[in-house]
Amino acid sequence: MGVIQRMRDLNTLLNIRLGPGAAVLPKDVKRLHLEFAQKSRDGHLGSRKFWRDFLPRLKYHNPAVSMTVERNLNQEGPATMTVFFTPETEPLANSSDSVDNSLINEKLQTIDMRFRDQSEILAELLKITKGMEVQVTEEDKLQLQESQQLQSSTEQDRIRSRLDHEARMREKRLLEQARQAVGGVRM
Length: 187
Known about the structure:
Elements: H1 3-17, E1 23-24, E2 29-37, H2 45-61, E3 66-72, E4 80-85, H3 101-105, E5 107-112, H4 118-129, E6 132-133, H5 138-186
Parallel strand pairs: 2-3
Antiparallel strand pairs: 1-6, 2-4, 4-5
Helix pairs in contact: 2-4
């Protein structure tokens, strides 16, 4: 693997580790379930952006939390996030019913994501779950600065290469025109 590919991978990892949505949820959060339409029309844009931008960061910092997404074709349907918490009390061991007691005791809260911005959705999630946003460390700040410096030097190299290429092409065209002019005189 080359240096450039390693830097791209590092930038990808850095973007997942930091930024909006990088938050640690408490241990009592068991599962997140998102349900929204496939298209972003009719109030589903915020939920779609939350899924694309914030959910990977949440999953990175909370690998034990199951996160499911259900995208449906119904544009007029709900855009909701359901947060499932672990049961506060232990399930009854001597229950004669065949129903799973953990599902009965499970606490859940629903967030309506329709017509809401992805940051509002995240703020509501953190408020409900009492989650904490990940703080940027000094090491992370240094990595971000290095990445930005690399990006700017890459952009300068790209501009310099483009100008060099244009100069070579201009010279090639001039030489071709000169050859054609000389070729026309010899006849």
